[in-house]
């Protein structure tokens, strides 16, 4: 089986137990929960039984140990998670507002995640990999972006493949070098996983069909557009497929895109037909939003299949 790796932030998330605005007075919090988009992604890949690993950095603290133990337990290769002697593990405090948007307090840039650097274990993981998944957040610092480019070239030179989830909104494109880094990665991407508006990041066209044609013409083999509660679409030169989202009660949307992406990438690499990969990924995304905590929403294949069996038996009643 092909080994999937990613590079990027590992965090803990600590969340307000009640809906409201900001953190300006004492409120009840729950956490720490393991988190970080690349970490959630790789945990979901591991739970599907695919060989996988992550290049990351945590502090010498319980927030770091909590993440490493979770990823190890679920089957990910944690050998390239370095421990920083000086910086703490990254964190994010989050509170949901009544309209569903979120307030965050982040400690990432000055945490261990902000000091990810090349290591021997990291090089060994890259050498063992067949596929690199890139999250936009890994391109936000020039030093980390250089590591990503080097991993990309090494894996591609050995015949491996690359997927990209920009995981950002248009506003963050203003970060210095971000646009160039994204363009550079996109031209070497096989599988592109934008959500909603991100489809238009790389195209002159505001029209979805033309943007897709553009991207396919640039050499991208598969484009998967994530549309939250509206489901997802897959486009290849040979056709397009669409699946609706499963109706579920949303408890916590954080991590849906990452579990969806991990499931799609895994089945795409296994050679599954697009509709099947989309269906499994959509079920994984639906399961993710029903559970509180970003990484708590990842699922085993047995859980995804049980969800699909239940859903489709209800549909035929
Ligand atoms: P993120 O905010 O984590 O970056 P994203 O924009 O990358 O998310 P979404 O489109 O929000 O990704 O979610 C990915 C997939 O998960 C969707 O395509 C859908 O299949 C499923 N999903 C997300 N939200 C819901 C929901 N409320 N109900 C059912 N399924 C959902
Ligand atoms: Mg996303």
UniProtKB/TrEMBL annotation:
UniProt cross-references to SUPFAM superfamilies, sorted A to Z: Ribokinase-like
One Gene Ontology molecular-function label: kinase activity
Domain Carbohydrate kinase PfkB: 34-298
Keywords: ATP-binding, Kinase, Nucleotide-binding, Transferase
Similarity section: Belongs to the carbohydrate kinase PfkB family.
Protein name listed in UniProt: Sugar kinase
Organism: Amaricoccus solimangrovi
């Amino acid at each position: 089986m092909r080994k999937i790796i990613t590079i990027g932030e590992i965090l803990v998330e600590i969340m307000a137990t009640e809906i409201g605005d900001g953190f300006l007075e004492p409120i009840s919090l729950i956490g720490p929960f393991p988190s970080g988009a690349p970490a959630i992604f790789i945990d979901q890949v591991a739970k599907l039984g695919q060989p996988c690993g992550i290049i990351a950095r945590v502090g010498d603290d319980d927030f770091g140990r909590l993440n490493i133990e979770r990823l190890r337990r679920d089957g990910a290769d944690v050998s390239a998670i370095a421990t920083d002697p000086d910086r703490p593990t990254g964190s994010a405090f989050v509170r949901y507002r009544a309209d569903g948007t979120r307030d965050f307090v982040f400690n990432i840039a000055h945490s261990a995640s902000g000091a990810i650097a090349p290591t021997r274990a990291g090089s060994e993981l890259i050498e063992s990999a067949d596929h690199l998944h890139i999250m936009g957040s890994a391109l936000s610092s020039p030093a980390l972006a250089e590591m990503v480019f080097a991993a990309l070239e090494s894996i591609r030179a050995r015949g491996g493949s690359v997927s990209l989830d920009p995981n950002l909104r248009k506003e963050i494109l203003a970060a210095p070098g971000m646009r160039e880094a994204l363009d550079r990665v996109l031209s070497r991407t096989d599988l592109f996983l934008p959500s909603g508006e991100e489809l238009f990041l790389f195209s002159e066209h505001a029209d979805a069909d033309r943007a897709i044609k553009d991207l396919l013409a640039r050499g991208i083999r598969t484009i998967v557009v994530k549309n939250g509660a509206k489901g997802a679409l897959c486009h290849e030169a040979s056709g397009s497929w669409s699946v609706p989202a499963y109706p579920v009660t949303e408890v916590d949307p954080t991590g849906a895109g990452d579990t969806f992406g991990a499931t799609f990438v895994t089945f795409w690499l296994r050679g599954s037909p697009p509709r099947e990969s989309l269906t499994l990924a959509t079920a994984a995304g639906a399961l993710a939003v029903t559970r509180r905590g970003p990484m708590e929403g990842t699922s085993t294949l047995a859980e995804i299949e049980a969800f699909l069996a239940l859903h489709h038996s209800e549909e035929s009643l």
